[in-house]
Description:
It is built from six helices and no strands. It has helices at residues 8-17, 20-41, 46-60, 65-93, 100-106, 108-126. Helix 2 packs parallel to helix 4 (65-93). The radius of gyration is 17 Å and the shape is elongated. The chain has one domain (8-126). Helices cover 79% and strands 0% of the residues. The longest helix has 29 residues, at 65-93. The chain is mostly helical.
Amino acid sequence: MNKHPRTVVGHIVEFVSLTERRRLLVVVGIPVLFVALFELTANFGVLVLLLAAGFATFLYTRTTARKTLAASVYGAGVLMCGLFVLELYLNGAQGSTEPLIGTATRVIWWAVAGTLLIGLGLWVRQVEL
């Protein structure tokens, strides 16, 4: 008998692992949400589409639903932190009229949310379901 109580994560993993179609929905859906978020909040152009395509490929190579869900969470976090750093770099390299601290405070939520997602994804990968 299972001694561990069912968690929300356990229910989600179980739901996704029932069919390959559901896993593929995660593989496609999470990068689409990522693109929608960054197309609405930033102007990176085709870069976000290329990152999303690479992200979907990365998710597709995961072998189980649990690994796919964990990778989708921490992968989105890594991309958000990377885009935060890129935004700061582009602001400094292009000689923007906006001060660097202004750019950092405007998009700090990318770094905070990305860090939280990385932690959550690593927790999902390690937790007993």
